[in-house]
Design a protein that fits this description.
- By secondary structure, the protein is α+β, with helices and mostly antiparallel strands.
- The protein has 2 domains: about 60 residues, Type Iii Antifreeze Protein Isoform Hplc 12 (Alpha-Beta Complex); about 120 residues, no CATH class.
- The protein contains 2 helices and 11 strands.
- Strands 5, 6, 7, 8, 9, 10 and 11 form a 7-stranded antiparallel beta sheet that branches.
- The protein is rod-shaped and about 135 Å long.
- The relative contact order is 0.13.
């Protein structure tokens, strides 16, 4: 082997060694990236805005793959986690769903039953009372005759709301017992009540002139004294 051939072999060996070094460098970079990024897992992104206290369904979200280490510990990675849940706040389009964005839908307790009535939307119910809210239910009754006295009564105190429906346009002939309502829109509100309280609400919804709700401050359990459950104008004279 002459000197030129020896130089060629040496160059080939050096080229091979450089190629192996470059390949090892690439592998090192890939391993470093993988160690920093880690395996990917499924996450779920909102397709559109979701209003507070609304039921959640799988078609409201799109699946995306993200590195597990980039996700927070509260990220929802399995859509079965939304079963029986509602949004606790306004959820924005494009946000990743987190477990602290959702809560269990209020459920019935032992001895309770659901009862729903339409409440005049103009009384301030819309947007202010949500599932989980506590309210006092008031009803006003006209006197039976000219000698009687009109009354306002607390039908149920501290009633628990478990669902708030959509605002509904009222049919002019829809008013119960031909009551003199001028409301054009109402909101269906569902309560969790005992049998006795459900009967009181059903009676008021059928025969009262008006039924209204008063929101109870969060965290409080207000008991209405017996003497405060009924009011007439005579009390202020």
């Amino acid at each position: 082997m002459n000197s030129r051939q020896r130089r060629g072999v040496i160059l080939l060996v050096l080229s091979a060694l450089c190629a192996m070094g470059a390949f090892a460098g690439v592998l090192s970079v890939i391993r470093d990236v993988n160690s920093k990024v880690g395996p990917e897992v499924a996450a779920y992104r909102l397709k559109d805005d979701i209003a507070p206290y609304k039921d959640l369904s799988a078609d409201q979200f799109e699946k995306v793959e993200m590195p597990e280490r980039w996700l927070s510990s509260t990220a929802v990675t399995d859509l079965s986690q939304i079963r029986g849940k509602i949004a606790v706040t306004q959820l924005e389009k494009g946000s990743l769903l987190q477990t602290d964005m959702i809560v269990d839908r209020p459920a019935l307790e032992t001895g309770q039953q659901e009862i729903a009535i339409l409440i005049d939307a103009s009384t301030g119910v819309a947007g202010k009372i949500n599932p989980g809210s506590r309210v006092n239910i008031y009803a006003t009754f006209e006197a039976d005759d000219a000698d009687g006295v009109d009354q306002s009564k607390v039908i149920v105190a501290n009633a628990r709301v478990i669902d708030v429906g959509k605002i509904t346009a009222l049919d002019p002939g829809q008013s119960s017992a031909d009551r003199s309502r001028t409301a054009t829109q109402a909101v269906p509100i569902t309560f969790a009540l005992s049998t006795a309280d459900a009967q009181r609400v059903a009676f008021a919804e059928s025969f009262a002139e008006h039924v209204r709700l008063a929101l109870v401050a969060g965290g409080s359990d207000i008991t209405v004294a017996p003497g405060d459950r009924t009011y007439t104008l005579d009390e202020d004279k």
